[in-house]
Amino acid sequence: MKKIILILVVVASNLNLLAQSNQEPPKLFTEAVRTNFLKYKYQSNEAYRTGDFERGQYLFDSLVNNQLVGSKFNDFTLKRVSNKKLKISKLKKPIFLVTYASWCIPSKGEIPALNKLAKEFNKDVEFIVIIWGKKKDAKKFSNKFSSRIEICYAHKNYKNDNEIVQSMRETLGFPTCYMIDEHLQVVDIKRGAAQPELRTPIKKAIEMNYKVFEERLALITSPDAIKKTILAKQ
């Protein structure tokens, strides 16, 4: 009887290993974008041309949820404004990545809210900002961010930046948030932030943006980390 049980255990283990080996590895993020973007672009352009912004947002969300979530984020080597390079695979924490452009002004309170979150969660999450633009412009823009955030830049004319510019800036736009887990799996992608009116008090504007970013951050942050931060505020 013991021999039969042992044989069954061995067979079950081998079948499990075989099933795992037959599973296809997740698509790379850039491949998922490349194979699905043209259809999305045509449909979204038509939606925005006719003023159907609700459908435009629906199409973006569908692209993200059905094609990009679950893909493996590329092991990009990013250029830091500090002259050092940052290789994505070297990071062993979840990544909260936000893209901006050096010529585009973020909404009121957006950067202070991001800086506040980085202060609270930098031990558990890697915060990265990619600024689309040339180094000198990105460097000026970077002065607004906390030292707890890795500030990087990319431009289509710079060596090795073509793939990241084409797959992120020229497809999903900016500002855009990428939530990536510690295994480099894309968890979610969201565009924009809160849009407070110009007359909104700065404190309120920061609170609005903080809430938006916090909800996104919760997708890749452990409950223990969130609880610890809440207790620290009390």
TrEMBL record:
<dbReference type="InterPro" id="IPR000866">
    <property type="entry name" value="AhpC/TSA"/>
</dbReference>
<dbReference type="InterPro" id="IPR036249">
    <property type="entry name" value="Thioredoxin-like_sf"/>
</dbReference>
<dbReference type="InterPro" id="IPR050553">
    <property type="entry name" value="Thioredoxin_ResA/DsbE_sf"/>
</dbReference>
<feature type="domain" description="Thioredoxin">
    <location>
        <begin position="67"/>
        <end position="207"/>
    </location>
</feature>
<dbReference type="Pfam" id="PF00578">
    <property type="entry name" value="AhpC-TSA"/>
</dbReference>
<feature type="signal peptide">
    <location>
        <begin position="1"/>
        <end position="19"/>
    </location>
</feature>
<dbReference type="GO" id="GO:0016209">
    <property type="term" value="F:antioxidant activity"/>
</dbReference>
<protein>
    <recommendedName>
        <fullName>Thioredoxin domain-containing protein</fullName>
    </recommendedName>
</protein>
<dbReference type="InterPro" id="IPR013766">
    <property type="entry name" value="Thioredoxin_domain"/>
</dbReference>
<dbReference type="GO" id="GO:0016491">
    <property type="term" value="F:oxidoreductase activity"/>
</dbReference>
<keyword id="KW-0732">Signal</keyword>
